[in-house]
Amino acid sequence: MENKITNKLKSVGLIVYFSVIFIERLLAVIFSIGHGGEYAVMTGNYFNIIAYSVTVLGLLAGSVLSAKPFFGMFGKLFSKETYPFEDNYKSIVIGAMAFLYAGMMHTGFTLAPVQFVAYGFLIAAMVVKTVEKCMGDKSKKFASIVSVIYLTLFSMTVPVCYIALKLGALTIPFYAAEFAAAFVLIPLFGRMLLKFFKEGITDFSFVNPLVMLILSGSAVALKWSEEINMFVLIFVVLTIIFYLAFGIVASKKAK
């Protein structure tokens, strides 16, 4: 049950997300050329060239794709009118995922805390959607609450693409694994997020956590001898446990 308050709150969450991630990634594009040691583009390392290229393309695509909904939300934020989210969720999610591609590349200039602020406001918009669903359809309250927690956990399993320095023969397989995880899981998350924004309940297909486990798990395992990515590892485990404990039940209650 969307009302003026929840409409404005969603707008604030999404506007801040787009604004903060845009600024942080724009600074990354500008300063990553010669900044960041082994992550600087000027090193000529092929990883940096690929990561920087994805960052630039993600920034450009995100800016173009999110421009219309961004200015639409901003234009109605301080008026009595509400923003027509139902007609614009697709463009919002596609724009958000384009920026997420840029955000998953570790560049010579990366402000991780700033990125987390941006993602926090995106999650806040998701929480507002859950509140709307719970207010409008109490029979789906459990499924909606499980959805927002599951989506939040799942989003954290997408690995940031880092450089490998001491993997030797495993370097290429590791790069293939981490880029595959990012490039597959982001659109997968986007599809789940779009369904959630439209219906208040996400997709609980077992395929999603299974694909995540294989891809993110492979990225973590292949770099294990050099560095254990505890952040991704913890969220992979939490996501699987949460899905088994609540996701399957929520999928049945959502029907």
- Mean of residue pLDDT values: 94
DSSP summary: helix tally? 8
**What would you report as the Rg, rounded to the nearest angstrom?**
19 Å
What structural class do the secondary elements suggest?
mainly alpha
Helix content: over 70%
Give the overall shape, derived from the CA principal axes.
Answer: flat
**Spans with pLDDT under 50 lasting ≥5 residues?**
none
Order of helices and strands: HHHHHHHH
Q: What summary fits the major beta sheet?
A: none
Q: Distance N terminus to C terminus? A: 19 Å
Give the beta-strand count. Answer: 0
Task: Assess the beta-strand content as a share of residues.
Answer: under 5%
List the helices and strands and how they pair.
Elements: H1 4-31, H2 46-77, H3 89-103, H4 112-136, H5 141-155, H6 171-199, H7 207-222, H8 230-253
Helix pairs in contact: 1-2, 1-3, 1-4, 2-3, 3-6, 4-5, 5-6, 5-8, 6-7, 7-8
Any overview of this molecule?
- The chain is an all-alpha fold and 255 residues long.
- 72% of the residues lie in helices and 0% in strands.
- The chain has eight helices and no strands.
- The protein is flat and about 55 Å long.
- The mean pLDDT is 94.
